[in-house]
Design goal:
Length: 167
């Protein structure tokens, strides 16, 4: 789980590595799947009831190329910086980006929502397996990255089609 237990956080500076299941992030995730684990590497500074977390979060995603429909893997990686305020009302801070309210009686800080918000926005709307993906032949469906086909192409270079689709 992408949780940090409060009794593990010492006063002052420390470092915490977290791993979580991709399934923790996948609600609302369409168009691919995430590969476990989700990783977070955090520098932690605790000053009484305030805890500053700074570092990086990452997960691999398997996406379908919008042009050739092949699956490919990309690394989603983001910096994270969050201030957790212990003894505050979580709903008071929920709307303020970069702050997490933690009830006084809580045992842990749950970073799942924070990490989900950071990583899922990195998924491109039109994922491409590579910038110059040639896509599929519009006539026979051959993946033109892997081979050519014998369909006539009206004597023009199919790479121009790929370019036109970008414009
Ligand atoms: Zn492709
Ligand atoms: Zn063809």
């Amino acid at each position: 789980m992408l949780r940090i237990f409060l009794d593990k956080i010492e006063e002052g500076d420390s470092h915490i590595d977290l791993t979580g299941e991709a399934a923790d992030l996948t609600s609302g995730f369409e168009g691919g799947y995430l590969v476990s684990p989700v990783r977070a590497s955090l520098e932690v500074t605790r000053t009484g009831s305030e805890i500053l977390l700074r570092g990086h979060v990452a997960v691999e995603a398997v996406l379908e190329c919008a042009r050739c429909l092949d699956e490919f893997v990309i690394e989603l990686e983001s910096p994270i910086e969050v201030v957790c305020v212990i003894g505050s009302n979580p709903s008071d801070l929920a709307e303020i980006q970069g702050f997490i309210g933690v009830e006084a009686a809580a045992d842990y800080i749950d970073l799942t929502d924070e990490i989900r918000d950071l990583l899922l926005v990195l998924i491109p709307l039109k994922p491409l397996c590579r910038a110059d993906c040639l896509g599929l032949c519009p006539k026979c469906g051959t993946n033109l990255n892997k081979g050519s086909c014998s369909c006539s192409r009206d004597d023009h270079d199919s790479r121009w089609d790929a370019l036109k689709r970008l414009i």
